[in-house]
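JOB MANIFEST
job_type = single_chain_structure
chain_count = 1
residues = 431
[input]
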Amino acid sequence: MVLGAGFGGLEFCKHFHDPNARITLVDQTNHHLFQPLLYQVATAGLSAPDIAQPIRSIFSDRPNINVLLDWVCDIKLDEKKVFLSGGNVLTYDYLVLALGSCTSYFGHPEWERFAPGLKNLRDAVEIRSRILLAFEKAESEGVPDDLQSLMTIAVVGGGPTGVELAGACAELTHHVLKADFRRIDAAQARIILIEGAPRVLAAMSPESSESGRKQLENLGVQVLTGVRVKNISEGRVDLDTGETIHAATIIWAAGVCAVPLAKKLGVELDHGGRIKVNPDTSVPGHPEVFAIGDIASLLQEDGKPVPGVSPAAMQMGRHAARIIENELAFPGAVVRPPFKYWDKGTMATIGRSAAVADIGRLHISGFPAWLAWLAVHLVFLVGFRNKIAVMFQWFYSYIAYKRGARIIAHGLGENPCATSETTVAPKQKAA
């Protein structure tokens, strides 16, 4: 049984081919999401279907894979049972935990209401709507007292997600929305990136970090480093320096943690709530259970943790698939090899022709890094249709500085002018 159809769970299913085994794949959504491009949906660069593929469609030619759309409520490892929200109780011989992570507000869950994170399509659509609604309000009210706040976007967190969001927001407001509005000058929008560490992209080399900061500033992003958030409330971010940033749109990109379900398993967790796994990615005391991807905590030979990135999850998925496949073919005769992460490099895109990349000892930035980032993401997109759609969207955006997904999903919400009875206008006679 596989819980989660993210990169790790999907890769396991793709590479597990025992003809006599059946796989039950459970996920809370009906699609696999290409999370690295979520920021593009949030900033109107792509539409939601461009980065998602139905799970059933992916495995339509695999009759031994049964897909269930449901929430996992509980897992009893000693009983080998999985409890679903629909009331079903499933049993397993092997279990692969690939449930991923969720947004962490570092002990302040009340901030989520004012500063949504970016983990799924709903988050992305919500962020996009907040950005566009703020500018629509500024336009419709002419020159409101809070004009500067409406045209300010604050991004908390200077990792890859925060950097990508800030750069994309700068391009969206300064170039795309600038041509859309008449009463306001969207080019005057403020994009502020807040990072508590001394530098952005702290996981990358100092050279790439500095290049990333310069490229952000060239796009008009105000970068604040070494500054921590004290509080977030409606339309404001209070910093530990005493400064308050007034922003109608606040986006949280500062931290993640393992899904809460991990705490119910009764196994040892790290400080981020991730399961401390054996070198072969199995759960201690439960050799039939594997934890892969963001839910797993695994140290490499050099003592550094395997990073929570999609390539690591995919490699873990393939590793677990090989182990289980071998054990089913040769019961009791297989020695499990330890998982070894192959680090292919780290990339972060910043904007149009702007990116940074660390590939081994090579540090590249600007247009070459952007091309490399573009190629890698197209290769890993699931589904031929998605690759074609994304390629044309990016090409169109690059050439014309246009973004075609500027849709406010939930509109203005409830109609304050509506009455309890529907009023139908009388039909007019033809002239």
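[summary]
The two ends are 69 Å apart (CA to CA).
The first strand starts at residue 2 and ends at 3.
exit_status = 0
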